[in-house]
Amino acid sequence: MTGPATVPARISLSRDQLAALLAHHADVLASNLQTDATTGLPERAAGLGRAAELLGLHAEHLTAEKECPPVAELLDSMLSFRAPSGPAVLPAPVDQTAEITRLRIELGKTLAKAAADRCADYAAGLRDAADIAEQQRQFEPAFGARKSAQVSENVGILRVAEELRRRADEVQPTERPAVDLPTLAAALDGFATLLATSSRDWGVYRVDAWLYAVICGWDCEQTEHDKTCVHGALEEMQEQHGWDDDTVAKARRYRAAVRTLIEAHQDGAQQ
Q: Which of 149, 198, 227, 265 is the most buried (most CB within 10 A)?
């Protein structure tokens, strides 16, 4: 009786073989999604069916006689990629819910540090204003009514400076932690990966849809568009959840800020 075949540590694939392997994987995923669409919750059927169609189209592009630009870019990047010897940067968590919770906590801590730093800057500005106010006091000799007015003005200035310092003490944190932008970017990037790879339908519930809009974005963000691109998803969320135009604009603005931070961190890490 022979034992199980030994799986080689490394294998070599031609470009066509890699494309065929990816196409097969896309077909399997599409089949699973199509099954879920027909047997799962009715409200998820449309989204799952659309995802299955896109995966099927992706498989067709991978096995077409002529490579389209997105497929060529994908294969080029995979064939030129050199995997590090260490573990993956973000291993797939066993419990995605726990991992999402952990990232939310980490993100909250980083945002709290940023808020504390802004408070510290505000407090410093108030103290500077208090110092400037005190410099406006008058000490030249004065007599009669002018002397009384000068004393009153100086007392008023001291009271203003005292009030400014009191307000500074109210907002001044006990510590002044620096804003750790790389950590914030890594947390957002990891959070986006978890959302994008989760089997959860993020468009069903209002809160989920808003979270996905900010972290991942419903709009197509590809520089070159093809048949695999999905357009109008954010507008569908707007209609489904009753968002007004200002809310949609805010979602796009927040998503742009998140994307800029993540891409800046990624570009900096590559340099």
A: 265
